[in-house]
Amino acid sequence: MLLTASFVLHVLSAALWTGATLFVVYAVLPRAVDGTMRPTTFVDGAHRLLLITRWTGLVLPITGAYMIWALYTPLELLTSTTRGWLVLAMLTLWGIMNGLIEMGVLRMRRELDPELGWGTYMAEGFPAERVDGSVPASRLAAAGRPYLLASGGCAVILLVDAALLAGGVPW
């Protein structure tokens, strides 16, 4: 029962996170780059992606660690099987994608406040009320664009990895 609950929480959280990332990259970012989106609307989308990233940054490793413990004991199975390597790739991509989203949003936030410290950023994220209209959405989007595009690429690779695991890649 606990393993099933872990799978459900893990898959739902991963779907929310990868879906939100791809939505921001595909639908929100281009409108901000071309200047057809208000800065507050763009920042709200980026901040919500950041909140999802941080929430799933807790749920995914907890449920993932439990599933590894339940399914890959002894731990040598992680390095001696194809499925194990796919799990390790997923873990690596999760870390990279988290870092890319955090860095992208931080770069955007520093467009408004160049002296912003890491602690303040971690506590606040990038709430829309920080936007005063002095910086256009295109400038904010340009600052975070490379990181968000790379995170979108990681999301696609993560989904392929998950599909291979779900599709029954042999042990």
Describe what this molecule looks like in 3D.
This protein is mostly helical. It has helices at residues 2-33, 39-71, 77-80, 82-112, 118-124, 137-166. The chain has a domain at 39-47 and 76-166. Helix 2 runs antiparallel to helix 4 (82-112). The protein starts with a helix and ends in a 5-residue tail after the last helix.
Integer-rounded radius of gyration? 18 Å
**Terminal residue distance:** 23 Å
**Total strand segments:** 0
The major pleated sheet works out as: none
* Low-confidence region ranges: none
Gross geometry: elongated
The fraction of residues in strands falls at: under 5%
Please bin the fraction of helical residues. over 70%
| Assembly state (oligomeric) | single chain
Structural class designation: mainly alpha
Number of helices: 6
Q: What would the average pLDDT be, to the nearest integer?
A: 95
Order of helices and strands: HHHHHH
Summarize the structure.
This protein has 171 residues and is mainly alpha-helical. Helix content is 80%, strand content 0%. It has helices at 2-33, 39-71, 77-80, 82-112, 118-124, 137-166.
Features:
0% strand; 171 residues; 6 helices; mainly alpha
Write the layout of secondary structure elements.
Blueprint: H1 2-33, H2 39-71, H3 77-80, H4 82-112, H5 118-124, H6 137-166
Helix pairs in contact: 1-2, 1-6, 2-4, 2-6, 4-6
